[in-house]
Design a protein that fits this description.
alpha+beta, Immunoglobulin-like, five-stranded mixed β-sheet, three-stranded mixed β-sheet, 9 helices, 40% helix, elongated, binds dinuclear copper ion
């Protein structure tokens, strides 16, 4: 009895692993690209299931029928049965054709470019964050991309340093981000929502901390977002903590690496012009709140191993950090 219970417990634990939510499941596609690969997966899954059932049935039948029994002669081995040899050569070949044709069809369907009027998004992988540029809209942002629902999107992917891979599983397949090369992916998202993803190619110490978010917006929300991103940064109110923060920013090393439109031109780290409007920081691994921003500014490598944003020398005071946080949060 205890053994039965152990088996039941094991089965229950194994099955509970199948419970959701799975924000990065390719089995819950939300774009034409992802639906094509999901359909291919389902197709091949059933072929594989059929092969499994046939092979295992034959195996079990053979085990039971031809097993050794007392007083029974050894079964006669079969050799040179032409019909069977032809059958078990042809059957896998036919199955492979049924797998290969939809596979090649899907590869071509998902490798093409979007129509010429598609929204263009340039994705640039950095150790360890994502930069998004919308060349036609004049928008540059980081870690969170916005795209409109139901519209074709043409993504061009490259890298500023090492090889990364851009992957938002519910929207489309993985594509390598290779320095000096451009890879492309086109998709049309079909449902409004937030779709998380991550770097899919080992790229150094914080590869696992290189997450991303694609926000699929309704048309009007996307237009509002674009308008807000194109506007200059908010000017902090006179005498506010944010204004002190801007002064700290302007006399510290921040401006060597970050762009804030009209304030600093750095291009090594993420563009911060509208950093306050994002939901996460540091490559999508922490919520964009005061506590995490303060910790991040004080000691980024402690939160993200290998981060090239080092501790400042001399270190910023707590008051300076609080002012900087207020300033960054004001940049909506
Ligand atoms: Cu970037 Cu892994």
């Amino acid at each position: 009895m205890p053994r039965t219970r152990l088996w039941l417990l094991t089965a229950a634990l194994a099955v509970s692993g199948c419970a959701g939510p799975f924000p990065q499941s390719t089995l819950q596609p939300r774009s034409d690209f992802a639906r094509a690969t999901d359909a291919l997966f389902t197709d091949i899954f059933w072929w594989a299931a059929l092969v499994f059932v046939i092979v295992e049935t034959l195996l079990v039948v053979a085990l039971v029928r031809f097993r050794h029994r007392e007083g029974r002669p050894v079964p006669k081995p079969m050799h040179g049965h032409t019909l069977m040899e032809i059958a078990w050569t042809l059957a896998p070949a036919v199955i492979l054709v049924f797998v290969a044709v939809p596979t090649v069809r899907t590869i071509f369907a998902t490798a093409g470019d979007a129509p010429a009027d598609a929204l263009k998004v340039d994705v640039i992988g950095h150790q360890w964050w994502w930069e998004y540029r919308y060349p036609e809209l004049g928008v540059v942002t980081a870690n969170e991309a916005h795209v409109p629902v139901g519209k074709p999107v043409q993504v061009t992917i490259t890298s500023a340093d090492v090889i990364h891979a851009f992957w938002a599983p519910r929207l489309g397949g993985k594509r390598d981000a290779i320095p000096g090369r451009e890879n492309r992916i086109a998709f049309r998202a079909d449902s409004v929502g937030d779709y998380s993803g991550q770097c899919g190619e080992f790229c150094g110490a914080s590869h696992a901390n290189m997450r991303l978010l694609v926000r699929v917006d309704a048309d009007s929300a996307f237009e509002r977002w674009v308008a807000a991103q194109r506007a200059g940064p908010a000017a902090p109110a006179a005498g506010s903590l944010a204004e002190q923060g801007k002064a700290v920013y302007s006399r510290s090393a921040c401006l060597g690496c970050h762009t804030i439109q009209g304030v600093s031109p750095g291009v090594i780290g993420p563009n911060l012009t509208h950093v306050g409007s994002r939901s996460t920081i540091a490559g999508g691994i922490f919520p964009n709140d005061s506590a995490h921003l303060a910790q991040w500014i004080a000691d980024a490598p402690a939160l993200k191993p290998g981060s090239i944003m080092t501790r400042m020398k001399p270190p910023l005071t707590d008051a300076d950090i609080a002012a900087l946080v207020a300033y960054l949060q004001s940049l909506q």
